[in-house]
Structure formats: structure tokens, C-alpha cells
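Is this the right way to post C-alpha cells for a design question? Let me know if I should format differently. Anyway, here goes:
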């Protein structure tokens, strides 16, 4: 399992893109009302499978004119919800729909067949994440599913010997809902990483004691941090620096001065 941050609304859009034609065939509209800024910390591929399984299940049990909506539950900040106005779930089987050992699969509204494995598999994925998959339903009126993972706030480590530049990047991040760590050189950064592993490292190149390239090399050598996204931000614009960054395993490269818009846009690739 490879956990990372990603945009929940985009993940829902991908699920709708994959299965939307099935809903269109039954004249069932599917809306994506997930908060555009909502991020999830999970295995993106596996969480995507959960979203597709939930959507497939809702399409199966909705009729022409019914409605399916993905949404952000107000009281569950780390969950994605899906509700529909379909036929609902028989109260006699609702407690068993996530169990492999109990056969609860029934034909859909257009007599669609199913394996009965999609919901148990999705439940297993969510439990594996330390989260949950829950359901509320009224027979004849529809259902609501909630895929929830443990809340996680991104941690960004900024490494730069210039206090002004660290302050500038911190200001750019002020509205992104992240925790920020700081270090003035690569050596300090390694100590900070031992205390708390960041989700992203943003580092300058030219620094005393240990420069950004040396830090990047150390981060990549450590199995615990080898996959941590690493962004080089430097005043050195020549091609050799860019190429060396890529060769050592940097995930992105920016040249100072960096605008807030550009910095936030690049960072969103790694934290949603």
C-alpha cells in the first residue's frame, strides 16, 4: 500500500469518468459535490477502487430518474460520502453487506447481476487503511455510504539558510492547511526528519554545513524517506543544477524568485 495525499474531488471525478456511461444508460444523473479543496491521505489506487465500487453499486440499485451524489460529510472531515435515491437496502441484510461469508447480492433494477464482492472488498480496503466504510439506508428511499480514513495533516519541511526565503514560503503555505517544519541547512533537516517524517521536503541548494544536494542524497538513501517528495528551490538557474537535481531523485525543481501561485500549484501535486 502506497499512501499519499490527493484531491478527493478529482478522485471522485475519475470514478465518475470510468463508470458514468453506466449511469447514463439508465438515465441516472451523478453529481460531484465534494469540496474542491478536500484532500485524502490514502493509497490513491485502492481508494479509487472503493469509489468505483460504491458508484457501481448505487447505479445498480437506482432507477431512471433517481439521483446519485458524491459529497463531503459535514461531521466527517476525512470521509467521502455517496448518497442515492435508489431502492435502498433490506434491513434484514444491511448488517451483512460488507461480509464475504454472507451472500447478500441481489439483482439490480435492470436485472443486473453482481458478484457480491465489491462492498466486502471495499470495506476490507478501508479497514486496511485504519478507516471505515459505513452505510445508512431506508428501504425504498435510498442509501448513503461513507468511506472514511484517519485524518492526516500534511507536514512540509522547508530547508533554506535564508530566513527571509523560509518566511516567504511559509506565507505561501498559510492557506493550505499544512504543518510546517524549518531547517537552516541539510544537517538540521536530517535531525528534524528523525523527529518527525515530513510528507514533502522543499530545499535550497547552496547552504552551509550540508547543501541541498547532499540532503537529497541522504533522504533517498534512507528506506524510510526514499519515496518522500523532494522539491529543489534555488537561485541557480543553469541547466547543470536542474539535471543534477533530477539525477539525484528530486521530484520537482524551481528557480527563485518563486511566485506564490507557482509554489502552491507545484506543491499540490504532492499534497492534494
Amino acid at each position: 500500500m502506497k499512501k499519499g495525499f490527493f484531491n478527493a474531488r478529482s478522485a471522485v471525478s475519475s470514478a465518475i469518468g470510468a463508470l458514468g456511461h453506466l449511469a447514463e444508460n439508465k438515465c441516472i444523473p451523478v453529481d460531484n459535490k465534494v469540496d474542491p479543496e478536500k484532500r485524502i491521505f490514502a493509497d490513491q489506487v485502492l481508494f479509487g477502487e472503493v469509489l468505483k465500487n460504491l458508484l457501481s453499486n448505487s447505479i445498480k440499485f437506482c432507477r431512471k430518474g433517481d439521483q446519485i451524489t458524491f459529497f463531503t460529510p459535514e461531521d466527517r472531515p476525512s470521509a467521502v460520502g455517496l448518497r442515492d435515491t435508489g431502492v435502498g437496502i433490506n434491513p434484514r441484510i444491511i448488517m451483512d453487506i460488507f461480509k464475504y461469508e454472507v451472500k447478500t447480492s441481489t439483482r439490480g433494477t435492470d436485472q443486473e447481476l453482481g458478484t457480491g464482492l465489491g462492498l466486502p472488498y471495499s470495506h476490507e480496503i478501508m479497514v486496511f487503511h485504519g478507516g471505515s466504510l459505513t452505510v445508512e439506508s431506508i428501504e425504498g428511499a435510498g442509501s448513503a455510504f461513507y468511506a472514511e480514513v484517519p485524518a492526516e495533516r500534511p507536514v512540509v519541511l522547508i530547508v533554506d539558510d535564508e530566513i527571509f526565503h523560509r518566511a516567504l514560503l511559509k506565507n505561501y503555505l498559510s492557506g493550505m492547511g499544512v504543518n510546517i517544519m524549518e531547517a537552516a541547512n541539510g544537517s538540521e533537516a536530517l535531525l528534524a526528519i528523525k523527529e518527525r517524517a515530513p510528507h514533502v521536503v522543499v530545499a535550497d541548494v547552496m547552504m552551509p554545513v550540508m547543501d541541498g544536494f547532499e540532503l537529497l542524497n541522504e533522504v533517498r538513501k534512507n528506506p524510510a524517506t526514499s519515496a518522500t517528495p523532494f522539491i529543489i528551490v534555488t537561485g541557480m538557474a543553469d541547466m547543470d543544477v536542474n539535471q543534477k537535481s533530477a539525477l539525484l531523485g528530486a521530484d520537482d525543481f524551481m528557480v527563485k524568485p518563486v511566485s506564490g501561485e507557482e509554489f502552491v500549484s507545484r506543491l499540490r501535486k504532492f499534497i492534494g
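Format looks fine. Someone answered above. Worth noting: The two ends are 18 Å apart (CA to CA). The longest helix spans residues 8-25.
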